[in-house]
Recover the amino acids of this structure.
């Protein structure tokens, strides 16, 4: 038996129409799509057709609409697989979604398996009678297929008179014209144009502001690259912020640390040119200053009265000055 079939087996090259005709003829159903069998009830009855009596049809629900109801059908099918020692894996989560490809592949496997049992011959199997024991089995037998419904509804539409067709055509053209006329109004008209113009002006102003601040940053960068100041710590901190590749607060913290270390070590010279030492006065100039100061002191003493001289001398002695009195 074909319990395990490879993906390149001829079973997986059977078309949808052949699968549908096989299901409808075997179970006397009116399915129009393979994915309509996603509830698992059809699979259970197909197994019942090749192994009569092994499937508990009273547990099968042909009226299953929700996933939890479909899962119960697949549990019945899995129990049948276990009894027959079939190792085929049932992907329930995909089948209950109603995906066409997944349901087609599983149904192709079902056909290959059913054909391998007794050559696909059914011994007096009555699908309608067996389905009556299931929930919703009678309604499934009476349910018409979708193509027949479409054909029945399409037949009356082909019978209207020539005048009715003209009326329909005129009403359709009128409707299309009204839709075309109403489209400009629904788009907003002048209000939308005004809004678009406002947004364009806003974008232009933002671009100008962006260019302005970019030019400022470029000027700062050029200034920091000057040889006279590029060695300074403050300039290095500014470059650290300018050349940061990400918006991180640690960059600013590092720059502040660089500046704070500059204050701790002392102010740096603004220019690499060393300061010239102050010129010391020459000895002759110092002697001249001493002599001039001495002469001034003598002249001041001679002009003072005896009392003033005594008071000045006492003040000098009190103050602890090393100066000598005359």
């Amino acid at each position: 038996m074909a319990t395990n079939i490879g993906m390149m087996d001829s079973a997986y090259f059977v078309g949808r129409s052949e699968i549908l005709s096989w299901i409808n003829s075997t179970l006397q159903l009116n399915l129009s799509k393979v994915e309509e069998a996603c509830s698992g009830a059809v699979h259970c009855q197909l197994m019942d057709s090749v192994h009569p009596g092994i499937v508990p049809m009273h547990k099968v629900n042909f009226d299953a609409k929700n996933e939890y109801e479909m899962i119960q059908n697949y549990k019945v099918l899995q129990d049948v697989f276990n009894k027959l020692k079939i190792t085929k894996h049932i992907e329930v989560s995909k089948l209950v979604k109603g995906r066409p490809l997944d349901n087609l592949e599983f149904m192709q496997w079902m056909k290959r398996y059913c054909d391998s049992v007794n050559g696909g011959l059914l011994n007096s199997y009555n699908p309608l009678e067996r389905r009556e024991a299931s929930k919703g089995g009678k309604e499934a037998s009476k349910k018409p297929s979708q193509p027949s419904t479409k054909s029945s509804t399409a037949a009356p539409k082909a019978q209207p008179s020539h005048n009715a067709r003209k009326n329909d055509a005129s009403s359709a053209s009128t409707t299309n014209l009204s839709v075309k006329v109403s489209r400009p109004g629904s788009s907003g008209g002048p209000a939308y144009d005004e809004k678009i113009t406002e947004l364009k002006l806003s974008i232009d102003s933002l671009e100008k502001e962006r260019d302005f601040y970019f030019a400022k940053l470029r000027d700062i960068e050029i200034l920091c690259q000057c040889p006279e100041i590029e060695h300074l710590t403050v300039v290095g901190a500014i470059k650290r912020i300018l050349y940061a590749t990400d918006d991180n607060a640690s960059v600013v913290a590092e720059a502040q640390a660089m500046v704070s270390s500059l204050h701790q070590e002392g102010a740096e010279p603004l220019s690499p040119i060393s300061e010239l030492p102050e010129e010391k006065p020459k000895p002759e100039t110092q002697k001249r200053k001493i002599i001039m100061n001495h002469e001034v002191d003598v002249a001041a003493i001679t002009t003072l009265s005896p009392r003033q001289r005594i008071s000045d001398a006492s003040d000098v002695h009190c103050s602890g000055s090393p100066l000598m009195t005359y």
Remarks:
- The chain is about 65% helix and 0% strand.
- Residues 190-224 form the longest helix (35 residues).
- Residues 142 and 186 are 48 Å apart (CA to CA).
